[in-house]
Design a protein that fits this description.
The complex is a heterodimer of chains A (497) and B (81). Chain A is an all-alpha fold and 497 residues long. Chain A contains 21 helices and 2 strands. In chain A, strand 1 and strand 2 form a beta hairpin. Chain B has one domain. Helix content of chain B is 70%, strand content 0%. Classes of the chains: A mainly alpha (497), B mainly alpha (81).
């Protein structure tokens, strides 16, 4: 097998002591910065990028891989410990991960997240090595209608997994789509929902929405109800896995890895959709006690391995088509270009050593993530012991600095304050923030593909049903929505009689 | 002063972020961090001002060290210096 030979070549390049040290340093720095609340992987990578510039290209790319995985894991750590997702694809980890942390099982959640990430990443890498070429051609065959249908599926998944009422989750999804639509229309140049505010022409950033509606809204909530303040500090030691729990985590990791590997290949938010889809699957399949959504190990293991597997396989569109699947990938693409590496259709055939060296370094980045973070799990968990009176002002300050250092925009900070209050008020009324965030992120790509599909079909809406894949996806979405509606309908009927 | 706790914590957290937005460019990083911590802590009914001030100064120093010294971000520590 040629790919195996090439992979061996890649590993030979990557596995020198200097390169391992570069990767280790990258993973350590990435985790150290990424674990600061308010600094998501995007900010972390952007902040640490200059460190790689002085290195020779191969070492720089390997260090970048370390930074990437470290930063991503750092985002999961803040999601679990203080309910602050560092990036879209760790949004879902907040639900069960933070619930686990609150019940004194932070260390277990962190370890499962690290191991799940590693397993997902390893399988993703193997898949990347074995199937890069055929998978790239499959991804290239996806039509705009298929993508639009896929994103619709993702949105329905967000509604299905929401706690509580379906109409409220629908409303939140709608709100997220509208928030995402704010800004200049790419196709027509028309300004939408900008109210003449120049800062809105570029749209609303992810970090103000995520930090406002999750982390800061959470802080307001904790301050407003001092008696219900999560007292995690006392129960930190009570975190041994229960019998069978690790086996359940392993099964979920396998499911998440499979799902993530498949969904990651599709350009356009692969890791994000993968983590939500995995969560939806765990909700349906796992018979956990406590149920998934309130601190079940499955809800951490599944999505965390799914998003890492997807992150790995999403290198396929990046490297073979030159298509970044999300903002982080776009940033990595930029970094690769700085180092003289130009991904694209000819990259794989023209520079096999570099391509496979990159694949190998990605895997080593994953390994380093595990090597750096498993020993540190106890240290991160101990962060929870910091008294709330110290932890929450620190979180606020770091969130502010993090948001400001991304764009140097005080407008972003004002938006964050507004989203924090909105997030708190919505939570009081039983509206969940997770669907807003997913819909917000998917809004633009959904619109782009919807528009493209309709342009190709001359505005004929039936194109979504004529394309076979799109039709199947829409049927799945409709079916899932009907199924969530069903028990509610039955209950309401029972009440009426 | 009897402000409902919910309103009070909303005002404190949103206010602290806005304070940071107001001061970061006008006064610099160190005053912005200190003021942000002080405003944020107003939301805590059991706050102790002495401890808050110590925390704010430590945080300002740590943020300056990480972002300006280590990560080389273009923040001015105190405007005018």
């Amino acid at each position: 097998m040629v790919a195996a030979e090439h992979l061996a070549l890649g590993f030979a390049t990557a596995l020198t002591p200097t390169h391992l040290l570069a990767c280790f340093t990258g993973a350590l720095l990435g985790t150290a910065i990424g674990v600061l609340p308010g600094l998501g992987p995007l900010t972390t990578i952007a902040l640490l990028l200059p460190f790689t510039f002085s290195l020779p290209p191969t070492a720089a790319v390997i260090m970048l891989a370390g930074i990437y995985y470290g930063a991503q894991y750092g985002g999961s750590v803040t999601a679990i410990l203080i309910n602050l997702p560092g990036e879209p694809s760790s949004t879902i980890t907040c639900l069960d991960g933070h619930a686990m942390a609150r019940s004194g099982r932070a260390r277990l959640a962190l370890a499962v997240a690290a191991i799940g990430s590693f397993v997902g990443g390893t399988v993703g890498t193997a898949l990347l090595a074995a199937l890069a070429v055929p998978l790239a051609s499959v991804a290239a065959r996806f039509t705009a209608a298929d993508y639009a249908a896929l994103m619709l599926c993702g949105l329905v998944a967000a509604i299905v997994i929401a706690h509580g009422s379906v109409p409220k989750a629908l409303a939140m999804t709608g709100a997220g789509l509208l928030l995402g639509a704010v800004g200049t229309d790419v196709a027509t140049g028309q300004a939408r929902f900008t109210w003449g505010v120049p800062e809105l022409f570029d749209g609303i950033g992810f970090m103000p929405v995520a930090i406002g509606m999750f982390g800061l809204a959470d802080i307001i909530h904790a301050l407003a109800s001092p008696n219900h303040r999560p007292d995690v500090s006392t129960s930190i030691e009570r975190m041994r896995a229960q019998p069978g729990e690790l086996r359940r985590a392993a099964v979920s990791t396998a499911r998440g890895t499979l799902l993530g590997s498949i969904l990651g290949v599709l350009p356009g938010g692969g890791p994000l959709i993968a983590s939500f889809a995995s969560y939806a699957v765990e909700r349906k399949v796992a018979s956990a006690v406590p149920p998934v959504g309130s601190g079940a190990i499955e809800g951490v293991a599944g999505p965390e391995s799914a998003n890492n597997a997807a992150a790995q396989t999403s290198f396929i569109p990046l490297l073979t088509l030159g298509l970044p699947s999300n903002a982080i990938m776009a940033l990595l693409l930029g970094a690769l270009i700085v180092h003289g590496i130009k991904p694209g259709p000819a990259f794989l055939s023209r520079e096999p050593a570099l391509f496979w060296g990159l694949v190998a370094s990605m895997w080593i980045g994953n390994l380093m993530l595990l090597a750096v973070n498993l020993p540190l799990v106890g240290l991160w968990a101990r962060l929870l012991r910091v008294p709330h009176a110290i932890l929450y002002p620190t979180t606020v300050v770091l969130s502010c600095v993090g948001i400001y250092s991304l764009n140097h925009s005080t407008f972003d900070l004002r938006m964050t304050a507004a989203f924090a209050v909105a997030g708190y008020l919505l939570r009081l009324r039983g509206f969940e923030p997770a669907p807003v965030l997913l819909a917000f992120v998917l809004s633009r790509p959904l619109e782009d593909n919807l528009r493209r599909a309709l342009v190709f079909s001359d505005g004929d809406l039936t194109v979504f049903l004529r394309e076979p894949l799109s039709a199947v996806l829409i049927a799945i979405a409709a079916g899932a929505l009907l199924l969530t509606g069903l028990p509610a309908i039955q209950r309401r009927r029972a009440l009426l009689q | 002063m009897t402000v409902p706790q919910g309103l009070r914590s909303c005002l404190a957290i949103a206010g602290s972020v806005l304070t940071f937005a107001l001061l970061i460019e006008r006064a610099g990083l160190l005053p912005a961090v200190i003021a942000t911590v002080v405003v944020a802590s107003l939301g805590d009914a059991q706050r102790r001002m002495g401890r808050t001030l110590i925390l704010s100064v430590c945080l300002a120093a740590a943020v300056w060290l990480v972002f300006v010294v280590l990560l080389d971000q273009p923040f001015s520590a105190i405007r005018g210096f």
